[in-house]
């Protein structure tokens, strides 16, 4: 019963995170998405100009400047108005932020599941369990060598973030046209793969 309850909680947590991510990527709340998108881009562009240590230090200094200034402002305001409202960040200081052992175990189990599935898939590809899939993987790696020669990892990360916040909206708006072209591309790829499977000995998939 306990395992079933933990599984239900994990599914609810994942569903909640998934819903929030979808709302962000589809710009359901323009203000919230704009703040998130702008903050991530600003951070990534900062990393292109400064080291990670410098960016972290500048962000910490900016946050400290804001909190210290607000703390002093509230203290002066309370002294002038002769009120005793207490520490301006009292509610945040008293907020529980520690992770329980149960939560840590859930996140660890989830991470372990992803790692295990990734290792199994890589083993399958590198040890050529399916020749066609391994060839596809080899072609992908070959293409990535050209991508790596043109862009560094940070540039690719910036492009990925921009794509994450723009492509879902574009797809939602032009879904019919995009699905039509994707269907044509998928059909062409399947035809080419079928021809390769027919010509390469041992490339045909075993019947299920």
Which tags fit this structure?
single chain; 208 residues; mainly alpha; 8 helices; 0% strand; transmembrane helix; RTN1-4; transmembrane
Task: Please provide a written account of the structure.
It is a single chain. The relative contact order is 0.07. By secondary structure, the chain is mostly helical. The model has no long low-confidence stretch (mean pLDDT 83). The radius of gyration is 26 Å and the shape is elongated. The chain is built from 8 helices and no strands. The longest helix is centred in the first third of the chain and has 30 residues, at 52-81. The protein has helices spanning 2-25, 30-49, 52-81, 90-93, 101-126, 131-150, 153-173, 175-199. Helices cover 82% and strands 0% of the residues.
How large is the share of residues in beta strands? under 5%
Q: Which descriptor suits the 3D outline?
A: elongated
> Low-confidence spans: pLDDT under 50, at least 5 residues?
none
Structural class: mainly alpha
Residues in helix, %:
over 70%
Helix segment count?
A: 8
User: Span from first to last CA?
Assistant: 36 Å
Biggest beta-sheet profile: none
The tally of strands reads 0
Element order: H for helix, E for strand? HHHHHHHH
| Computed CA radius of gyration, to the nearest angstrom | 26 Å
Mean pLDDT: 83
GO cellular component, one term: postsynaptic density
Subcellular location: Endoplasmic reticulum membrane
Pfam families: Reticulon
Function: Inhibits amyloid precursor protein processing, probably by blocking BACE1 activity.
